[in-house]
TrEMBL record:
Protein name: Carbohydrate ABC transporter permease
Chain segments annotated as transmembrane: 12-30, 75-96, 108-130, 142-162, 183-208, 241-263
SUPFAM superfamilies (UniProt xref): MetI-like
Organism: Streptomyces lonegramiae
Tagged with keyword Signal: no
Top-rank lineage group of the source organism: Bacteria
Length: 278
């Protein structure tokens, strides 16, 4: 194998792999512009003619709720979840990584063990609690738990990152009179920005794409998120709404793609420096 082949072969393989990975997105975009009779019958990637009315119907929303309101509802839940996870998980991680207290190792091990606990196991007890508090059919069950450091994965990720930070900076802050919280807020938190942005990216994507939990707690159509609205398209008029459903799918994917491209370099940096290397 000559030098030129060795140089271009990895790029060729990467380009082919990229095309394979991007094909579902290309198919989604093309299908969102297909007429109703071609969505499930035609195997061609490109439609015979562009059906822009699919996007018009998608923008009208479902059950009298426009797509703008649906996106706003989803953004409110995702934004609250991001804020809650970043604040609460970083506080819990700072306590495990930097503070010394009784049974800290046991509590940290117990926290990590909850990673193996299926979400469906705690769903029913949580629902009973929120139902007795009168918070069902509101956004509180989807946002409030994020402010209680319930995501063990993100706590573990930030702990691994904070353990790699030099302790000399915090010791200097204590000499200057800073307490634990001031040290956390002014010294540790800014240095842990890559891990915090990684937490924010994953939280945003997982919350935006969540369907099951939102279906359990949200009943009123005006409180629906974009994922619940997608399922409503099929329920409304069966196969005739597949075109608008794919059009709304494209609309729902765009915020995630933009969010990821804006913060992707922080995602790589955070994963590479937080003990989660491949």
């Amino acid at each position: 194998m000559n030098i030129a082949t060795k140089r271009w072969l990895p790029h060729t393989v990467s380009a082919v792999a990229l095309l394979v990975l991007l094909y579902p997105l290309a198919w989604l975009l093309a299908t969102s512009l297909k007429p109703a009779d071609e969505v499930m019958t035609s195997l061609d990637l490109w439609p015979s003619h562009l059906e822009w009315s699919n996007y018009t119907t998608a923008l009208d929303g479902v059950s009298g709720v426009t797509v703008t309101q649906l996106l706003g509802n989803t953004l409110l839940i995702a934004g609250g979840a991001v804020l809650g996870n970043v604040l609460s998980c970083s506080l819990a991680a700072y306590a495990f990584a930097r503070l010394r207290f009784r049974m800290s190792k046991v509590m940290f091990a117990f926290m990590v063990a909850t990673l193996m606990l299926p979400h469906h196991v705690v769903l029913i007890p949580q629902y009973i609690i929120f139902n007795r508090l009168g918070l069902v059919d509101s956004y509180w069950p989807l946002i409030l738990p994020k402010f209680l450091a319930t995501e063990a994965f993100f706590v573990f990720l930030i702990v691994q990152f904070m353990r790699g930070l030099p302790r000399e900076l915090e010791e200097s802050a204590r000499i200057d009179g800073c307490g634990p919280f001031r040290t956390y807020w002014s010294i540790t938190l800014p240095l842990a920005r890559p891990a915090l942005i990684t937490t924010a990216i994953f939280t945003f994507i997982w919350t935006w794409n969540d369907f099951f939990t939102q279906m359990i707690y949200l009943f009123a159509p005006e409180k629906y998120t974009i994922t619940l609205a997608l399922s409503s398209f099929v329920d409304q008029s069966s196969t005739s709404a597949y075109g608008p459903m794919f059009a709304m799918s494209v609309i729902s994917v765009l915020p995630i793609v933009l969010f990821f491209f804006v913060f992707q370099r922080y995602l790589v940096q955070g994963m590479a420096t937080s003990g989660l290397k491949g």
